[in-house]
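Exercise (ungraded).
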Amino acid sequence: MKLYNYFRSSASYRVRIALQLKGLPYDYLPVHIAKGDHRKDDYAAVSANMLVPMLETDEGERLSQSMAIIEYLDEKHPTPALLPADAVGRARVRALAQSIACEIHPLNNLRVLKYLVRELKIDEEAKNTWYQHWVREGLEAFERQLSQLPPSTYCYGDTPTLADCCLVPQIFNGRRFKVNFDGLPRTMAAFEACMALEAFQKAQPSACPDNEP
Amino acid sequence: MKLYNYFRSSASYRVRIALQLKGLPYDYLPVHIAKGDHRKDDYAAVSANMLVPMLETDEGERLSQSMAIIEYLDEKHPTPALLPADAVGRARVRALAQSIACEIHPLNNLRVLKYLVRELKIDEEAKNTWYQHWVREGLEAFERQLSQLPPSTYCYGDTPTLADCCLVPQIFNGRRFKVNFDGLPRTMAAFEACMALEAFQKAQPSACPDNEP
């Protein structure tokens, strides 16, 4: 498999974690988002939405959207499972993942921050406040959801799931923007539990071939 | 089942479509988002993330996040299926759905528009430009994805899927903000095909008990 990727892309990191958890080898094809390489002709020729991550399967299928890719990997390579066996459990894990992927991350990705600065002319401080606002508000909602679930090592249960694949990159991004993580005990405990695992470490931005220190 | 809902909420409309397509009866419990009812104590007591839609199952499970709810409904009530039978097909449909639910809709929901106006002090025209920009850019990416798929009546294949459940409410929202839909032939053909179906009509905002003309 080939993974079109950018070390700092939160959505890319989600897929790298899933590939590591499942022990699946892949070729890492860097696409430099900050330099706009995803909008150039050669990437547009292979990627209809011009976003990373994109997974190209051994059969040549090009798949986009991180959560869709992870569900695909989970269906084709079921062990270890990244979704629970029961329908309610799957609904809970998907909802946790979507709380990050639909409520937090979209507001803070690079193209949105660029629009705020270039089109709406907001300054650096207002940009950082915007960023922190949505991460903090979103993680408080995430924490409330976790607090209604039985005690667990990770976000849901005692093995990592799709929810953890989404949470960890969001915390990494939040740290870059100095988000306050106080008062989020279940969320941060799940994050720490994940980071104790080799799969999450091997997938992190600083371990990527295109990492810029 | 009970569905906590708001007639104008795009994410709520997605779930209403799925329930109609599957012919599942439900109690409609209105939550007036524009008046802030989702942030009041009585709704916070039942909804951890204080968002709509929320589905309460007959077993008392409270499920959030529209795509997670629809997948749950599809697992519990498999006919008619809202996801293809093969893994690549499912990945494509989920990616199309997520192209809307993760790339377009989050930038334009009410709390974001309120932040732009109240905190960033942008005027009505700049707000409308913001709205139109993300819908248009997102739908162009959506159209490029559709254009690489075999001809189909709906977004993917000849029966409605999760992708259509997400597309139709996005077009409704875009119309309210006078988005230009020119040059999106596959996208708009899928929308029109959906709107010819009773399920999509019965689920639309104007058919909701809390509709405000």
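Further reading is listed at the end of the chapter. For now, observe: Residues 118 and 187 of chain A are 34 Å apart (CA to CA). The first helix of chain A runs from residue 10 to 21.
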